[in-house]
Amino acid sequence: MRFRRRASEGTRSDVSMSARRRVPVWGLLLGLGIAGCAGTQTPPERISSPGEALFNGRVKTDVTCYRCHNGDGTGTLRGPSLARRIPKLTDDEIVAAIAEGPGFMPSFKGKLDDAEMKALTAWLRGRFPKTNEADNASYP
Ligand code: HEC
Question: Which domain holds residue 129?
Answer without folding.
Answer: 44-136
